[in-house]
Amino acid sequence: MKVNGKGMRSIWLEPDGWSVGIIDQTLLPHALVTTRLTTLAEAAAAISTMQVRGAPLIGSAAAYGLCLALRADRSDAALDDACRILAATRPTAINLRWALEEMRDRLHAVPPAERVSEAYRQAAAICEADVATNRAIAEHGATLLREAWNRKGGQGRLNVLTHCNAGWLATVDWGTALAPIFKAHDAGLPVHVWVDETRPRNQGASLTAWELLQHGVPHTVIVDNVGGHLMQHGEVDLCITGTDRTTSRGDVANKIGTYLKALAAKDNGVAFYVALPSSTIDWTIADGVAEIPIEQRDGTEVSEITGRLMNGEIATVRIVPEGSAVANYAFDVTPARLVTALITERGVCPASSEGLLALFPERRGNEGRG
Ligand code: MRU
Fold first, then answer.
1. What domain range is 301 assigned to?
2. pLDDT category of residue 368 using cuts at 50, 70 and 90
3. Are 169 and 78 members of one domain?
4. In this structure, is residue 369 part of a structural domain?
5. Among the three residues 128, 158, 189, which one is the final residue of a domain in this structure?
6. 294 and 338 housed in the same domain
7. 366 has pLDDT over 80
């Protein structure tokens, strides 16, 4: 996507041919700073501190993390250790495990002497596949937006609500939930996006708003509790979010607060779509509430907030009394019954086992086996 008119991705191989460039997303929207990852430890830290975040992007970053690990040690033991270290960085997004398993299976099959070059080839392939997948999601989702616009009679603007950041910063390029929005906007549809700020880390206010601004898509940032009110007043035509893990029956784990938006959408007859690459589907589980591990992060993300002071300085301030307990659940699960449809790279389907299997028939009979 474009930043200040120039094409950019969220992760890339540096001109030296081995180190990995990323955008430090903890500094957006106040500063666009890129940084180089040169070791396994740096890659793991970038994922756990959320310099890179978003389910598909952490999968790609982990793939490159393995490349960096193998540069230091190409042995079987080092490969397995690096997979363990990277897998432990964030527990909910399944793409991380998916990318590591893809890489590990292939790399064990080649002799150690060839592992580094094969790892870089594989990591690049994962990134390119992500871009192609998201481009397809953009096409399928934009058709839904066009249909919603036609149903509305082509009057006013098409109001889409989104939660967290499922744009190109959460992937290698394009994004998932935002991809159809970029596509529809580029095709001339008058899309307007309600952007949930998404406490505690404010990925909506800081990242989604920044992406939409860069691309010229009209949008309005709202605090997390506004969506229900807007839906009651007919101000939301549809919702689209991403997902960090989708079960075989279509339950979706996404950023904390997504479930409440889906409940409000159901109560108000507003369509609630979830956009996902198939790498986000965990075919081994069905019941998301019972089976998806929910990441709990440091309480300071709740008790403190970071922003830019009027003098331009970036500062972190405390907003909770000293002594109050805080809890920081990073994700919640929206059951399939609240999801109108899933938007995948192979098309749109009902959020159900049958819906997913119709698009991914090769998985029929394989559910439960990964
Ligand atoms: O904690 P984050 O910022 O990694 O959470 C990101 C989300 O919840 C996104 O909606 C999700 O990864 C889907 S991304 C395309």
1. 138-363
2. low
3. no
4. no
5. 128
6. yes
7. no
348: left (phi over 0), alpha (psi -120 to 50) or beta: beta
Task: Give the residue whose CA is nearest to atom 15 of ligand 1.
Answer: 166
CA neighbours closer than 13 Å in the CB half-sphere of residue 363 = 22
Residue 273 lies in a domain: yes
* Catalytic residue (choose from 130, 173, 224, 244): 244
Q: Which ranges of 197-335 does DSSP label H, i.e. alpha helix?
A: 203, 209-215, 227-232, 258-267, 288-291, 300-303
Residues 250 and 111 in one domain: no
Quick one: 220 exposed, middle or buried, by C-beta within 10 A (0-12, 13-18, 19+)? Answer: middle
- The answer, yes or no, to whether any atom of ligand 1 lies below 6 A from the CB of 173, is no
Distance CA 334, CA 341 (A): 12
> Does 368 fall in a domain?
no
User: How far is ligand 1, taken at its centre, from the CA of residue 340, in Å?
Assistant: 20
Query: What pLDDT is stored for residue 125 in this prediction?
Result: 98
Which ligand 1 atom is nearest residue 280's CA?
Answer: 13
Cβ of 56 below 6 Å from ligand 1: yes
- Specify the pTM: 0.97
Which of 128, 147, 169 is the C-terminal boundary of a domain? 128
**What are the tens digits of pLDDT across the range 8-35?**
999 999 999 999 999 999 999 999 999 9
170 lines ligand 1 (CB under 6 A): yes
Q: Is 224 a catalytic residue?
A: no
pLDDT at site 48: 98
CATH number at 255 reads: 3.40.50.10470
